[in-house]
């Protein structure tokens, strides 16, 4: 390449894990720095919002996190207008992430929980953001947007890099593809997802029976999980059947069921809707007519279904969004 690429890393509502994942590239990051200049990365380097004014164009913009404030929205739109390739990086940017679960509540309830009611909060004067009378630094509270948005709700995304955070191998693949694209060696289809092309189940090394039949769903503390057998076959819910593979299955290898951070598998849009319709049929109800309604419902009850099925992808659920907007 005759010139260095200009890369911007733009945070929305983030936890910092996606930045750590980039820094964790170690030698690969140094190789990238040899080919590219970081022109904006306020979480890792000393960049300020005003620095965006001096940027005429950006080759690659990595957007991290969801959009929760008017300022997030303003900055991603500003950067996107100057960027040639726009990348949604991480589960929050791609699907809304964990913070989309707050969309199940009214904004007032969310603020009360965060600033007044949570067990670790001490706020005797019951001050909410922006309400402090003593405000020597004249800090104004960020203006929240109505719900938690994913990045492609506001800008056209060229490449999605999922995961919470994206695994090292996926980031390296994304970097290699983007460099080859700018060298003119490959084309990039709009909406390319850098991840596996099958479900996680297709890549899972655990023993799977031909047909899964369980007596009831169990939470992971209720059962000693056999590390060689499929979680679902042991009654523990695993999101592998509806989740995109390519992460290297770190949770499965650590004997923890998948929680879906790579997002929906190809041809699936709503992970929760897919699993809610498929999983109850795994429960075999013997002597159904003899069971009371209570016993029957205990067998198929799933605790915290929203947190379980939509931990990372509630931002994709059209149903929830329709209800919240109303
Ligand atoms: S995707 Fe995960 S690691 Fe990245 S900002 Fe969101 S919560 Fe943090
Ligand atoms: S449901 Fe989970 S444990 Fe079972 S095969 Fe799929 S990914 Fe593996
Ligand atoms: S196993 Fe599931 S939750 Fe774990 S990293 Fe892979 S996709 Fe994410």
Give the gist of this structure.
With 326 residues, this protein is an alpha/beta fold.
Topology:
Blueprint: E1 5-11, H1 17-23, H2 27-35, E2 36-40, E3 58-64, E4 67-69, H3 70-82, E5 83-89, H4 91-95, H5 107-117, E6 144-149, E7 159-161, H6 168-182, E8 192-193, H7 200-203, H8 250-253, H9 271-278, H10 293-300, H11 305-309, H12 318-325
The site of one iron/sulfur cluster has 13 residues, from helix 1 and helix 4.
Structure characterization notes:
The chain is of the alpha/beta class and 326 residues long. It has 2 domains: 5-98 and 146-193, Rossmann fold, CATH 3.40.50; 200-325, no CATH class. 30% of the residues lie in helices and 12% in strands. A 6-stranded parallel β-sheet has the order 2-1-3-5-7-8, with helices on both faces. The protein has a two-stranded antiparallel ribbon with strand order 4-6. The longest helix is centred in the middle third of the chain and has 15 residues, at 168-182. The chain is globular, with a radius of gyration of 22 Å. The mean pLDDT is 90. Bound molecules: iron/sulfur cluster (3 copies). The site of one iron/sulfur cluster (SF4) has 13 residues, from helix 7.
